[in-house]
Amino acid sequence: MTETMDKSNQANLCRHLAHAAIATPNALAVAVQKNQRGKLTYQEIDFVSLHQRSDEIAYALNAYGLKSGMKAVLMVTPSIDFFALTFALFKAGIVPILVDPGMGIKNLKQCFVESAPDAFIGIPKAHIARVLFGWGKASVKKLLTVTDVNSGVGANVFASLIGGMSLTKLLTRYPIQNKDLPKENSSFDMVKLSDDAMSAILFTSGSTGTPKGVVYSHKMFEAQITALKEDYAIKPGERDLATFPLFSLFGPALGMASIVPDMDASKPIKANPAFIFAAIEKYQCTNLFANPALIEVLGQAGTTNVSAAKADTESVNKPIIKLNSLKRVISAGAPATLTSIERFTQLLSDNVPVLTSYGATESLPLTKIASVDLLATSHITDNGGGICVGTAVNGVEISIIEITEKPIEIWHDDLVLPANTIGEIVVKGDMVSHQYYNRASATEQAKILDADPNATCSKRDVVRHRMGDLGYLDDAGALWMCGRKAHRVETDKKVLFSIPCERIFNTHHSVKRTALVGVKINHKSVPLLCVELTDEAKNKKDFNEAILFSALKVAALAHKQTSAISHFLIHEKFPVDIRHNAKIFREKLAVWAQDEFN
């Protein structure tokens, strides 16, 4: 028993970086694109240099007073220093706290209250916000400022004004010491942890509720790395165009270069496609990770030539960009639209898949499906069958249980519903988180204890996660998404699910997207469909709302999923999350719709 537990105290995902530094020391590890007055420049670092720099930072952080087990907020824009700092924190056993700046000031403050960080590491803008809004005021004792070398901001001067120290000064004051070796061979003895020990806190975006801190272990990270190697066939030497900071960290861990474009990762819809295309071309990237919003932006940009469209309407939606170096594209974060995937695949070489993955911050990746297979299910999706998100990756078990708001303490197999029955999605696997940080109630609501029959000690109990999503498994074991549990609409006679219902109406040529909500009419719960029009319909002078609603009512009656829907409202522009531009805030729409009827 003791011997087994001792062997488990060897976990640290930075072992992969250390291996790459030996196996391919001079190979590109990270390249960061910058737009300098209209000219694209690139900062690069190889594996051995990244390994050495993160060692130097880890040593300096320890000397500064940050020790294993302490927690540090990291609010640094994608850069060489972002990678070096993150790996340094992991090496030192310091727990990085990663948040999405797009979640809003109020939510950010609450995140820092709950996580109680010991240190705050950030760019000047983040420190200014920290001071103004009191982020981490009660717990933060150490401050570190990170400044872009090209920004022109004096990091040392700024740090002296707000307290703390700049990263440059930190490394100067606390150089890594090894008397027996030359400086370039000096190394830091990375902390080894139990594989279930807390290694990071990643906050959910809050797009479907209050942000929660997900406790990550090195075991979770290792499971994610394994999935990328085995299920996505990513190999050392590849180059990834990384548009999401967390995923970009997996590049060096996989022996793959991470190419970071100049974009705001929290607002992918505002990314400049030309920058991304340029980075893919320069580095001949083999992999692209992009959420559905970015897939849509890139697909539109790569298939639309404005000048050609004016001269020849047949040129519209023909690819003007070809991304021939890409071997695969991975999309995750929100349900992708079939039309955007179909358009984007035109930019790729034949037989290159867009792999749509299902998961969440609490557990990712869980399933995958290739674009050719996804597009083949379009007739089912358009007729209310939900969205197919594929089959489980290796090591993941997916079950469907009855819809309930009650906590479930202990797992038992009779909870499982039969195939083709809609219920809540429950998952099990090494990439599944065990708890939320300082959120006992949320943990109780989302986690189910599943004692491992082969366990030799109680600490080997398995935790299953309730996704908060609804769906079903078909006879072949493929998972079909039917929307969030919180977004279902219950009436006296039936339960309606968001995705199956909305997709039926989304096929109408005047409809951009729809949102199912529940309202009270004459003291009864009634389903109502909010409709956002396409730009073409909005600009149409003779657009007739009554004709549209009549057509939608006909569609509703033609499907059993939507036969109870007879109320429709047009909303000018749906409120959606910043990152994905796809997660509709149905709660806000429900309040608006109710006001329209009052």
TrEMBL record:
Pfam (any one): AMP-binding
Gene3D superfamilies: N-terminal domain of ligase-like
Matches recorded under SUPFAM superfamilies: Acetyl-CoA synthetase-like
InterPro entries linked: AMP-binding_CS (IPR020845), AMP-dep_synth/lig_dom (IPR000873), ANL_N_sf (IPR042099), ATP-dep_AMP-bd_enzyme (IPR050237), OlefBLtnSynShew (IPR054910)
Entry-linked PROSITE patterns: AMP_BINDING
CDD domains (alphabetical): FACL_like_1 (cd05910)
Domain AMP-dependent synthetase/ligase: 20-437
Domain of life of the organism encoding this protein: Bacteria
The protein's name in its UniProt record: AMP-binding protein
